[in-house]
Design a protein that fits this description.
four-stranded antiparallel beta sheet; 34% strand; six-stranded antiparallel beta sheet; 40% helix
Length: 338
């Protein structure tokens, strides 16, 4: 009696062979398509054009989009297939030393592309504002940032009178921060522009010149009911003082801190008055007083886990180019001597 298992295997073998041949044919077609210079060159041109266009856009996450990373991946696969296809030709016509230079150079480029894709998928960059005495929560971070104190010191006016104040850094700009985990202090640091804090592959760097004042306005209606309006310069609120819609901004001058309250009439700013610790404002039977005043600073928070991959790729590419230009003719010299 025949073994039924063997009979079943004999029946399914032809179908398996057909599937195997089809799979091999598909792989060969993909290899042939992506290893063609007629595909690789337009693909490279498109990538360069998209990269230039993306660098002009204000959206920082452009280079982290899935389709841009996929475009880079196609370039990498195309370069890999072209390298594999031309290895026998280079070895036969130019020799082993020329082949080593080409392969190592292309390997370096592939490592760089892989590093960019890895960084786009796992790295991040945030631009946040931190206010003195308040916590800053950034989604995805394993800690909360608490700005204990912001110390700012300007140069004397007479020392910088001949310079453009917009491009002059502060004489002193120190952010004293505490990182909190599970509600408890975990890490303390004093950071400044150019002097970041690095924790678990995450970098926290204060922004240059992105400092200012956060303040609160206390609007009291005609029934004596107060309402606190937080005024963040990077996101100024529109609030009502009676029936009048209003906005406010700090007045950057000497002396005590003050803020100007204004309304918009025919798309023009119309001042309503100035408030300070010593002066209130009366509008439509409502009073506007100045509340808490705090400094704020901008923070860059980023992670670049792919940095070492990019360095490795650049070193490999430089080594390959050096080998290619200085050692590729040795095979020809040996042949001539023979």
């Amino acid at each position: 009696m025949k073994n039924p298992v063997k009979n079943d295997q004999r029946v399914t073998n032809p179908g398996q062979k057909v599937i195997s041949h089809q799979l091999i044919a598909v792989v060969k077609s993909i290899f042939s398509f992506l290893s063609s210079l007629k595909v690789a060159i337009p693909l490279l041109v498109i990538t360069i054009a998209v990269t230039i266009g993306g660098s002009l856009l204000p959206e920082p996450d452009f280079f982290n989009t899935w389709w841009y990373l996929s475009l880079l991946g196609l370039n990498g696969i195309s370069l890999l297939f072209i390298t594999i296809l031309h290895i026998p030709i280079i070895l036969e016509r130019k020799g082993r030393n020329a082949l080593i230079g080409v392969v190592v150079t292309h390997l370096g480029i592939l490592i760089i592309i892989a590093g960019i894709i890895y960084g786009g998928m796992s790295g991040f960059r945030y631009n946040v504002k931190a206010i003195e005495g308040e916590m800053t929560i950034v989604p995805g971070l394993p800690f909360v940032i608490y700005l204990d104190k912001l110390v700012v010191e300007d140069y004397p006016a007479e020392a910088i009178s001949h310079l453009d104040e917009a491009v002059i850094p502060k004489k002193r700009q120190e952010s004293h921060i505490t990182l909190l985990k599970n509600g408890e202090a975990w890490f303390n640091a004093v950071i400044a522009p150019g002097i970041p804090a690095k924790i678990d592959a995450i970098t926290i760097l204060p922004a240059f010149k992105d400092i200012g004042w956060y303040f609160e306005l206390i609007v009291t209606d005609n029934l004596g009911r107060p309402k606190t309006i937080p005024v963040r310069p990077w996101q100024p609120p529109i609030f009502n003082v009676g029936t009048t819609p209003a906005m406010a901004h700090s007045l950057m001058g000497t002396g005590d801190f003050s803020a100007q309250v204004f309304t918009m009439v025919d798309e023009k700013m119309v001042p309503l008055g100035v408030v300070s610790k010593k002066q209130q404002l009366e509008v439509d039977g409502h009073s506007v007083a100045l509340g808490n005043i705090k400094r704020y600073t901008g923070l860059f928070i980023y992670s670049r886990p792919h940095a070492w991959v990019l360095v490795l790729g650049c070193l490999a590419m430089m080594a390959g180019l050096t080998w290619h230009f200085y050692f590729r003719h040795r095979d020809r010299s040996v042949r001539r001597n023979r």
